[in-house]
Amino acid sequence: MDRNQHIIGSVIERKPGVSASTPTTRGPTRNGFPTVEHRSKSAFARGREEASRKGGKERVREVPVIQTTPNEIVAPRRSILNGVTGEEDWRRQVSEENQRRVEDMSQEELEQERREILERFGTGVGDILRKAKDAREKTERESSEKSAAVSEDKISTKPEEMENEVVHEDARRHADGLRDMANSPFSPLSPRSALLRSSTRPPSRTDRKLRFAELMPEDVHVYQSAPPSPKRTPLALMAPSASDREDKSIISLGLWKGAASTSANHKLPKDSSPVALQSNGTDQITELEEGTPEDIRRRFFPNMPADDPSLAWITSRPSNDPMSPSPLRFDLTGTPVPASLSTSLPTHLGLHHHAEGTHAGYTIDDIFLLSRSTMPAQRATMLDVLARIAKRLGKARKSKISDEGMEELKGKEEDLRKRILAAGIEAMGQQGSVGIMAVDVLWECIVGWDQELVDIEGVEFVESKPPGPVADESNDAKKPTTGRDPISTLPVDYLLSQISEALSTGALPETSLAQLLDILHRLAQYSNAYATAIVTETKLLSSVVSEFLLTPIPPASTSPLPNPLAIQLLSTLALASRSNAITAANYADALLRFVVTLPPESPYSQSLATTLLASTLEFYTVLASYGLYASIATIAAEHFHSLGNYVLSKCTSKRLMSAWPNLLAAWIVCATDPHQTTPSHEILWSQVAGWGWGEEILDLRAKLDEDGYQEVWAAVWNTVAAWLEGARVNGIKGGEEERMKIIERIADDFVNGMEATVVSQSIENMQHLLPQLASIDNSLETSEAEILVGLTEISKEVKVLMAVLRLWLSCTLPLSDDPPASPPFLLPFKQISSVAAHLTRHPIWSCLHSQTTALPSYSTAYLRPLSSFLSLYLRLSRRLPGTTPDLWLAQACTVIQRVLPGDEDFAQRTLEQMMCVVTPNFIAQAGWNVSNAVWENGAMDIITPFYVHSVRPQLDEEEERYGDVGPLILTPQSIAFAATQRAPSLSTLRSRLGRDFGVPLPRDWSYTPLDHLLRSGTSPIFKALPSKWSASETDVTRSVLLLGKTVREVLRAHGLGSEFAMTREETVFGCMKVFMLEHGQDQESDSLQDEVFRDSAVGSFMVDLLTPFSWANVSSAFNAPSSQDLEQVSRRFLGPSTPFYQFYTDFLGLYDSISFSHPLFARLLLPPLSMRYPVDYRKLLWDDFHHTLRTIRTPVEDVLTDDMVQYLYPVESDKAVVAAYLGALVKSGTTHSFLRFVAVHHIAAHIWKDLQPGGGSMDEERTEKLIKAVVTQGDLNTVKEVVLYKQVLGQKEINAEGLLLPPQCYKQSGAWKEERLHQVERWGLKERLQGLLA
């Protein structure tokens, strides 16, 4: 457009007083009718045509020059100088107008108006108006006098100064007038006339003065709220209180970086005024450079302070230094903007719409702020940026190499993920592009963050913490954890309701709806609670099925295709709980459409139809694991028969070839005992036998190769094994005919056929993968993706070995555990035993009891096949000819410590079999002398119920249980009682072990009956004992200690003691439990013979158990350093609320009351006195129970320790304990043997410098007091021991190998004596001690 062409023509201000134009009538037309005027012609065009017809002048195109008339300006000024304000002029005009109206009114009208006024305002209105008039006239007189005084003062003022003063006087008077009118209830507030306003300042600046509150950085806050609504008015909220500032729900968007005004530094003098400041700064204004911020402020904003935040826009911006540090910024694609480019990128890229406009790109805080914008387009754009950032963060977290430009966010990924997730949820309910981008954000944070987990089933992902505070972690347990999984913080109810509404209305695009399905599946994977919430959400499942599965057949070009993930979602929900499976079964009929039409005839593509069919079969398998929906095998028998023929002939999909046998195996288990299905008799064994699934599935082997078909081989062998196991129950002669047919078909193939190659290859792969898996540790050098790959590979191989062992066992004779005369078919038993031995001792199992490895929480899904393989191998080992009873017992003791939830039935059967092995003949062969009283009173039979019960602990009815987990290998019992088919995560298993889960068993599992005896009043086992059970506490204790000794000896004999036998601390705590059986008993009525620990057999067993851990046997293999102390070992029994110190206090009190110097009782008091334990234990014995010291006469060689130095160093620093040591020494006969050795050491170490490791400094005054107390109060033997005590120290501490014990520690000689003599000389004791130190 031409710059000289005017967009707006002539705009001329109309002079006041010109009357408004009246409409004009058009002249007559030719035909007498008005001229037709088209609406396409504008009013301006018609006006110009009318003016042309009338001969008017052409429109003025130049802007007229405004001539200033002196009278127009001077008149208002003169009225101001005369004291006439705008309000007074307005009041005068109104008064004159009212006077004219009154004069024009008749007498009747005047009377009518007077009556109306009296009726409206009352009879006293006249007095009120008269008083108001008198007050107004008084004010006018005072104002006139003041104006006259001002006029006299201004006579000598220069014109330009007078004009300036007049302007500010006008502003001041106007402000005073407004203030007076606001304070007076009768002062009408009315706008001023435009003629009375100053012509030198805009009215917005002369009328009012703006003042801002003092602003500090901590005064700026943003509160989380409900999703923003366009109809909601923003509210100004107060700053949070001190307690609110700690609330994590209040999110700070950063501190204000501006210069805050401080009242102490910027207050104006009392006598200062805008006029004075203006007049005083006139000379300074001329000195300032024109255009500077201060010049602009003084010219246009003279009444505002220089540091007012509202004037920050006029300040000079610092020069853009590319090298200056700048926070991480992102462009609109979520890519980091390099700092070197942030100041040079052009502004048209849309990267400068933020507070710091000189830098291109948006900081994290900018993006979060703009993601709550009220502009939908802006908000959608920022949500898209957040989604892209989340994607980059997720990739950077998995990669060893950090993303370029994202180094600043390293280690903050989870915190940012939580914030991004919150922004997406807040925008979830919005319409249009904002809602679409919100779904994208949620998908990236929930699904895309770890998308590789989508196919992991059978385990929860949720991280769990212990139900209460734990000992040394009690303080941390009460604090909010910053590393908590963001998914656990989701508002699930709100999120699911939004997803349900979105799916039911279909308002989102297909891509977004598919993302919502991904999100639902990931939430269902996360925890059983989330899965239940999805199932119970109104119309959610029905909307999923309608939207993603019940699509038109045949599909139209515009209709969506079925999504197999929807079927997988149903399977995941059903795996979570039985109740979910019952609900999901209502949609099982709808999936028959994918079974009836096989992939070759399907209207969908071959790959999609095969995936839909395989997913449907897997869903039916999950339902069958609860005994549900098995009747469909009979109802749709013809279609499933056609499916079987297709799988055996034309199918090439490995997934479908695995899904079909797995479904048949599940239905076979349901038919084995039809009473266990829901409802019962859903499928019968006669039907299964008629269909011939067991033999038919063997035909699938012809299509399989030796490589890449491990899952299919395992599925085939499991189906055949299930068939033979069912035939044992329902077949003739225990299924002998079926068993012989199967053996005949497969025996040769396991020698020279494909089966032999598959088994050998799996064994080789296991031997290669197990060492690689052992490299996983806490170094975090192995990424989670690499761990997942390793676990997946080893799980795939071990499932093959599981299936072949199950098949071999199913081919053996039923009702017999003895080795068969000949094996059903040959297997590489030696190699399988080697793999089992290696796997049993693998370090990966340490994750079950402590978080010592980098395994993720979902690793339980991959540990379950390993555990099931060991269970099957233990069954196999018992049937091998070379397995002796003691070898099998040692193997069983290791395997039951590797059993996971779901295999409780196997653990219970194994424990019963183990009790049957420990017989008098077995003990006699071991060469042990056991009292006949042990066998006469029941021996192992009386304690077997305790072990069986411990595998499935029973909670109170009020307590919520996790639920029984179904095994990997289905049984008729599991389909009836399983509450879930998903194993708990590792953290959940560790936190609830012993409470909800009885397996894996701990190393001290043999002491379990003692736990129930100590809690006999509350333990539910005593209500479930057989009616003939009548054993005493002594009988139970004898059997427990005998079993404990047997377990330890068989493990030691086969080289498994260091990993699976009880440690020193576990053995000590177990023996403490034996003595604590007397706690709370009525000691007056009980005789000494009734005390359990005084029984000769009990005492003998405890001595045998403790002897290998004494100092005399320090070289024993059992006496190795332990990673846990008594406080940690006792936590499993005492629970999180009872500290071991309380238990030890009761134990010491019991010793004081009933021990009568029992030597073994006294021996168990010593371990907590080690310097590795808190000082409270030493203070309790040496100070509070000092009277019991004389009864403790334990020799040094009988102390239960592997390192005597732990009792000596570091030197005791607590003054109370040192004083107790001194008192015990100087009082004759108080300490003996080991306790005297400890007391002498710590007192001597506080006296002699050569006993301090590293030559540490000593308190001379305290040292002098100690030696003088020993010399003056102790006997000669005590003085001699303290003065002559010596230990050989290394550079920092005592050398354990060179430890000197009594009496050698008192008989040493050397130059150290001369040094000590110099010390005592300073104390004035040389004469008394010279003989000892000579």
In short:
The protein is mainly alpha-helical. The chain has 59 helices and 2 strands. It is 51% helix and 0% strand.
What would your notes on this structure say?
- The protein is mainly alpha-helical.
- Helices cover 51% and strands 0% of the residues.
- It is built from 59 helices and 2 strands.
- Strands 1-2 form a two-stranded antiparallel sheet.
- Helix 14 packs antiparallel against helix 15 (432-446), helix 30 runs parallel beside helix 34 and helix 33 (754-774) packs antiparallel against helix 34.
- The longest helix has 29 residues, at 125-153.
- The chain is flat, with a radius of gyration of 47 Å.
- The model is unreliable at 1-10, 16-33, 66-84, 150-208, 220-237, 253-286, 318-324 and 466-483 (pLDDT under 50).
- Residues 184-203 have a biased composition (Low complexity).
- It is found in: Nucleus.
- Residues 19-28 have a biased composition (Polar residues).
- Residues 1-62, 86-112, 129-207, 464-486 are annotated as: Disordered.
- Keywords: Nucleus, Transcription.
